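Worked Example 4.2. Consider the chain below.
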Amino acid sequence: MLPANTPSKPGATPSFLAARIRSQVQAGQDDLKSETLEGALFIEKAAERAAAQKQTGDAGRLTKLAAQLRESTPAEANENFPLWRNSKRS
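Applying the procedure from the previous section yields the following structure tokens:
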């Protein structure tokens, strides 16, 4: 398992991933399962850090959000996850 602060790919950050998902959805690509799984991993790592800090409410919400992202279609991820919509990178 990767350390909590290590992205799964060189240069991968939540905002980079958000921009990539947004641009791929806009281009009509629908095979983005690896990107949504990668996003879920970022959120799960945040949930682990919250749990370690005894922030159980935040940890629970983040865990639920990660599960929702894992099950979402690319269009749902683009529409429903604020990080994706609000990313400043393109």
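Helices lie at 14-26, 33-52, 56-71, 74-80, 82-86. Residues 78 and 84 are 6 Å apart (CA to CA). Compare this with Example 4.1 before moving on.
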